[in-house]
Amino acid sequence: MTAHLKLAPLSTILFVVLGMTLHQCQGQAASQDKNERYAYKTGDPNGIGKWYMGRQIAHVMGYQGMSWLERPEREKEEETSTLFKNMDIQPGDTIADIGAGSGYHVFPMAKMVGEGHIYAVDIQPQMLAEIERKKKSNATFNISTVKGSAKSIHLKENSVDKVLLVDVYHEFDHPYEMMNSIKSALRKNGKVYLIEYRGEDASVPIKAVHKMTEAQAVKEMQAVGFKLQENMSNLPWQHCMVFVKE
């Protein structure tokens, strides 16, 4: 779980990719994990050489790109305010932002939930430290930072009403395990909001490995017991797919 977006639309931002050399198997013959869930083979250089259900997993973005996550044009490019309306955030909601980054979505949601709570989950301590800094500066008390891992969000069972995944799922090193962890943390009638750049749309100015099609997302979510309730089409470049437990 890391920062949300990896490739700046219409910009020349230079990203520093985290060291992922353990996953790189470029130039080697394709091989399988012993459980045959993941495959390793050459592919897009923007990916890590690891494949899941026919999709190559993308590199994550390092905390060095933090300032880009807070860019002033982000609202225009992504219409985050529309995303929040899609989520129907209510006072008292408990929401987990997975791959919370520097907290771009965390702090507006914290205001919306009031007496509710926001879990900001990320694998990079630098990202979590930035959220803690902002919490102190803003005197915000309904946010908890959580250091996740490659296979778990480290939240208690049945602890959240909604889960937000903004342009981060396609980078999960172990997507099957991560979604099972999310499923465990989600309450019975909870919802997962999967936000990904539309892979079906060639006009979206993002590299292919950082996009997902609805069909691919549905296939991967079904593998862990989620079904698509709705795909809202009101964001400029992204899917807003709502998944619930089957």
Brief sketch in words of this structure:
The chain is an alpha/beta fold and 246 residues long. It has helices at residues 66-69, 74-78, 80-87, 106-113, 125-138, 175-185, 214-222; strands spanning 31-32, 38-40, 47-52, 55-58, 94-98, 117-122, 143-147, 160-166, 186-198, 211-212, 226-232, 238-245. The protein has one domain (68-245): 3-Layer(aba) Sandwich (Rossmann fold).
Question: What can you tell me about this protein's structure?
Answer:
Residues 1-32 have low confidence and may be disordered. It is globular and about 45 Å long. With 246 residues, the protein is an alpha/beta fold. The protein contains 7 helices and 12 strands. Strands 5, 6, 7, 8, 9, 10, 11 and 12 form an 8-stranded mixed beta sheet that branches. 24% of the residues lie in helices and 28% in strands. It has a single domain (68-245), classed as Rossmann fold.
Attribute tags:
single chain, 246 residues, alpha/beta, Rossmann fold, four-stranded antiparallel β-sheet, 7 helices, globular, methyltransferase, S-adenosylmethionine-dependent methyltransferase activity
Q: At the first level of CATH, what is the class?
A: Alpha Beta
Q: Strand tally, please?
A: 12
Query: Distance N terminus to C terminus?
Result: 24 Å
The CATH topology turns out to be Rossmann fold
Mean pLDDT: 88
The number of distinct helices, counting runs of at least 4 residues, comes to 7
What is the CATH architecture descriptor? 3-Layer(aba) Sandwich
Number of domains: 1
Strand-residue fraction?
25-35%
What's the helical proportion of residues? Answer: 10-25%
